[in-house]
Automatic annotation (TrEMBL):
InterPro entries: CAP_dom (IPR014044), CAP_sf (IPR035940), CRISP-related (IPR001283). The lineage of its organism: Eukaryota, Viridiplantae, Streptophyta, Embryophyta, Tracheophyta. The gene is LOC100839558. Coiled coil: none annotated. GO terms for cellular component: extracellular space. Pfam families: CAP. This is SCP domain-containing protein. Residues 64-198 form the SCP domain.
Length: 202
């Protein structure tokens, strides 16, 4: 009997790697790595807090250079003919206070921003995500948004993208917190807020 030939194991397709990355980035209790905050509905409450990491391993960082946040915001806005945002130290300070609180009390879970006077975009990653990467994940929702009828594809989210490009928003401030596990929570606040029900972002 002729010996059986061993076939090499098939190489995993790239789509699998991307899917694993998406699952890796997803916050455990929310199922998506970015959470839009709309002014028309209350943001979902933070998930059950995880045990806080040891204080010696947890760090709260002030926002990196503002351009790391501003550049991807303003690139997306320029693409739809909307004026550039200004960096707000006051909004950045408020965002830093919130992310620091979430770090200490909720294991870097999403904050409940339902009562905030500002618009808010949040992002969670299981590693130390760079600002541009997080903002890029919000802007990526543009592929689901149709401006002609101001709609979002069924089963998708567009709220973080529409806040980024909301025409009447003029100022933004952002912050990040890193937990002892290495997870990163990112929060950007916007003034005036966007995502007003029934209105088009631009």
């Amino acid at each position: 009997m002729a010996p059986q030939r061993r076939h090499p194991a098939p190489t995993a397709p790239m789509a699998c790697s991307l899917l694993l990355l998406a699952l890796c980035l997803a916050p455990p209790a929310h199922g998506s790595r970015v959470q839009p905050t709309a002014t028309t509905s209350k943001a979902p409450p933070a998930p059950v807090p995880a045990p806080p990491p040891p204080a010696s391993k947890a760090t709260t960082t002030a926002p990196p250079e503002s351009d790391e946040f501003l550049a991807p915001h303003n690139k997306a806005r320029a693409e739809v003919g909307v004026a550039a945002l200004r960096w707000s130290a006051g909004l950045a300070s408020a965002a830093a206070k919130t992310t620091s609180q979430q770090q200490r009390q909720s294991g870097c879970a999403f904050a409940d921003m339902g009562a905030s006077a500002y618009g808010a975009n949040q992002g969670w990653a299981s590693y130390r995500a760079r600002p541009g990467e997080v903002v890029g994940s919000w802007v990526a929702q543009a592929r689901y948004y149709t401006h002609a009828n101001n709609s979002c594809a069924a089963g998708q989210q567009c709220g973080t993208y529409t806040q980024v490009v909301w025409r009447r928003t003029t100022d933004v401030g952002c912050a990040q917190a890193t937990c002892g596990t290495g997870a990163t929570l990112t929060l950007c606040l916007y003034d005036p807020h966007g995502n007003v029900k029934g209105e088009s972002p631009y």
